[in-house]
Structures are given as C-alpha cells and as structure tokens.
Amino acid sequence: MAHAVISCLHANLAATEAVLSDIDQLGIDTITCLGDLVGYGPQPNEVVELIRARQIPSCQGCWDEDIIEGLNSCECSYPSQLAERRGQQAHHWTAAQLSEENKAFLASLPLSLRRDRLLFVHGSPNSQHEYLLPDMNAFAALERVEAAQADTLFCGHTHRPYVRELREGVIKMRLRRAVANPGPDIEREVDLPVRRIVNAGSVGEPRHGGTSATYVIHHEQDDSVEIREVPYDVERTCQAIVAAGLPPLFAWRLRHGFEYAERADDASHVCER
Amino acid sequence: MAMWALLSGLRGDLTVYAAVQAELRRQRVDTLFVLGDLIGPEREANALLERLQQPRRGDLQPHCLYGWWEEQLLAERGFRGERRADALRQRGGEAAVAALLQAVDPGHMAWLASLQFGFVELDCALLHGSSADVGDSLTADTAPLQLLDRLTRMEANRLFTARSGEQFCVELCGGGIESRLRDLEGERQQHQSVPSRKVIGVGSGLHYTLYDPGSDHIAFRRAGCPIHATGRGFA
Fold this sequence. Notes:
The complex is a heterodimer of chains A (273) and B (235).
Chain A: E1 2-6, H1 13-25, E2 31-33, H2 44-53, H3 62-69, H4 81-97, H5 100-108, E3 112-115, E4 118-121, H6 138-147, E5 152-155, E6 162-177, E7 186-191, E8 195-199, E9 213-219, E10 224-230, H7 234-244, H8 248-256
Parallel strand pairs in A: 1-2, 4-5, 5-8
Antiparallel strand pairs in A: 1-9, 3-4, 6-7, 6-8, 9-10
Chain B: E1 3-7, H1 14-24, E2 29-34, H2 46-53, E3 62-64, H3 68-76, H4 86-103, H5 109-114, E4 118-121, E5 124-127, H6 144-154, E6 158-161, E7 167-183, E8 186-193, E9 197-202, E10 207-212, E11 217-222, H7 227-230
Parallel strand pairs in B: 1-2, 2-3, 5-6, 6-9
Antiparallel strand pairs in B: 1-10, 4-5, 7-8, 7-9, 10-11
Helix pairs in contact in B: 3-4
C-alpha cells in the first residue's frame, strides 16, 4: 500500500489541488498532512475546507498554532526584520480572513499523529517550530527520532523535501562515578538504531530552488520513499496574493522559486519574540 | 588557571552553603557557580538568598542560575506568563506548592526572576537540567545518544548538570554514524564522528564538584569530609 504525506500548504489552493490530483491519479487514498495549512498564501479558508472535506488527517503546524494562539506563540526565527514584518502582515491578514469554524478546526489539530512506528509531526517531536534541516547534526537528528520511539519520522516545516537514513551508529563512552558514590568505571560501546527522517517538503511554499510543489509517497511494501514534484498554476496563486493585498514578495518568491529571497535584508537579525 | 566550584540543591540550607564556602576558602578556587535549586519547600530560604545576594567577607561571589524549584516558584507567582507550578502540583499537591510559597519572601522574587537559565564559560555549558529543559534529569545511566544531543544543542564540549543530584562524569570518547541523504539534487553520504565530550553531574547539597578548566581535571567533593578521605577525584 502507498501512503502520501503532504505538508506546508500555506493557503495555496492551486498547489494543493494539483498535489491532491496527482495523488488521486496514482490511486493513493491514504494521505497525511503535516500542518501549516495557512499563512503566506491567499486562500486560507479554501485550503482548510478542502482538507476538511477530504477528511485528511492533519497535525498542527506553527502557522496554524499562531493563528489560534496569537503571534506570541511563535518561536521561529525570521531571517530579517523586513521578513518578520511581512510575516506579521500575513498573520494578521490570515487571522482576519479565516472563519471561526476553520479556526476551530485548526485549534483541534493534534501536534503529532502516529501509525505504528511511523510518527508524523510538523517540525520535530519537540516542537512545531524546530527545523530538522537536512544537514543537521546526525546524532541530534537520530535522537529526535529515537526519543519519539519511531522508526521513521515524517516532518515538514523546512519546505525542503529529503529522505535521510541514519545507520551504523555507535558511541563509545567511559563512565566514572564519584568516590563518595563508588562503582566500577565502565567503558562500553553503544550501538545506535537505524532510523530515518522523511521531510515532505512543501505543497504551497516550496523552498527547494524550484517552483514545483513537493510531497512524498511512502510505499509500505518495500518501505521506500519517493519524493514527488508537481508543477501547478503558480501564476494563479501569485495573482491572488497581489489581489488580496499580501506582500508582493510572497508572489515573487513563488514565481521565481527563489529559496532565500528574504535573507539579504538584515542577516544579523533573529526574531526572538 | 584557578578552579571552578560547582554546586546545587542547597534548598534553602544556609548551613550547607556556609560549610561549602568555608571549605572553598582553603582551596585554589576562584569562581563559584550555583546551578539552581537554591530554594525548596523544606525550609525557609530567605537567609540563604540574602547571603547569595550579599556575600559575607571572604565568601566567593556566587554566580547563580535558576533551577527546577525556582522555576516552579516563578511560575506560581506569575513570572512565567500563564503557566503555574503544574509540575510541582502534580508531584506534591497543593501542600507542596503552599510550602514553597511559604519558603521564600516575595521580596526575593525580582532577584530570582533575574537569574539565567544557563552559563556558557569557555567551551563549557553550565545548566541546572539540560539544554532541553530545566527539569531534564541527566544521570550516569542516561543514554549516550541523549547526552550527545544535549551537548550538541549547546555546542559545548563539557556540560555540567545538577538536576539529578548525582556526581558522575560520562565521557563520550569515540564512535560515529553514517548518514545517507537523498533530495531533489541527488544522493550523498556522510560520516560523522563522535566528538570527545563530557557530561558532568555536579552533585547536590554538601556534594559539590571542582573543575580546572586549564587541565580539564574534575574532582568530586563532599563538604565536611577531609579531602584525603573523599579521594582526589580523577582527571
């Protein structure tokens, strides 16, 4: 059986429709969503209602949380002050647009979903706001999966799809206790388990360097993971962003697939709200 | 380079603190870190808190962090937003919360609220719990992967922790892991080695730890015991 995992839809209806259509054409009827249904994009109600109508199990993303809890729940780091201001603008616009019913839906989403030894989260098992980047320390990455008692951890949040296998890990350690609490010194090697992190990328706000929406398919039969790229009508979303009065930069970066469009403003600034 | 002394878990006990201070005067220690749990529900902590803020002549100036008990008190007194002392309430009920409130004069709250979560000195992280949480209890039996994670989060080579109350030193001294990454650009493999790092439990109350950052020498002590009887620690 195959199972699709989508994440970071970001109120981009055209991208969401294209990805769901791709999944339908592949005959896959099990879908899990890793959150961030809203934020940045111009169709928050439409995207939330599509996910609700399709009854797609979802966990709560950081944007979903912020819309419900207010901006103070945000622990993310904006790369610049301008980026932070644009993010706040998108937040207020989204909060004003979303219906109470859709807000209640976002508030009801769980922080994680589990299917046997598969765990589904937005950012990491620790937080919706923690980034599991593809090049993060391998031991720290393994710890996130192991501490969550999962074999494979599906996450999003980075907007960059990847599959990372962590294996053949071993830690050599030497334990010495206090003389007042004596015990034999111990030296041992601890074999680490084989674990995997699968990042589903982003449907509605890709940051992989291209404009295509991305998601992943988990083939349970051989436990393989396929990264899918889906072209969609980017212009349709861009026009809707501008028409909604959202920052035109959001349209620009979708249109150019430019990953770090916001990074040059003030590299020293880190949001610590 | 002179040594550091690290202690924790005073829990309001001025007698214990005075005993440690008296002992430190006789040793080559120039910096004192108190890694939290200055207060506790067992006894009134005001006298200790006053001495920590206004050291007596001859005392080493203490550099204090907040610990689990301070976190509970600060939460209950409204210094942590909407959070309250839920962990303490769950563990000890309303009586424990009331005892903690009783133990500390409100006049000390501003100072307690000013305490930091941790210090980073040289390549060492000094924390009550860990980089994950003030209540994270690392012990000699904690999985090495978890210890390495806590060190990695702080980008430190030495992590001094106090939450468990134990005195121990776990040295991570070798090993590695293979990582295979596949993304839209292709596939690549990476090997990462375990860096040489240590997690040190500093003890609690009369049990404290001396650390020489110049030689990386660690010695565990118990105040009131002759140094020869407690051994010389280890390098």
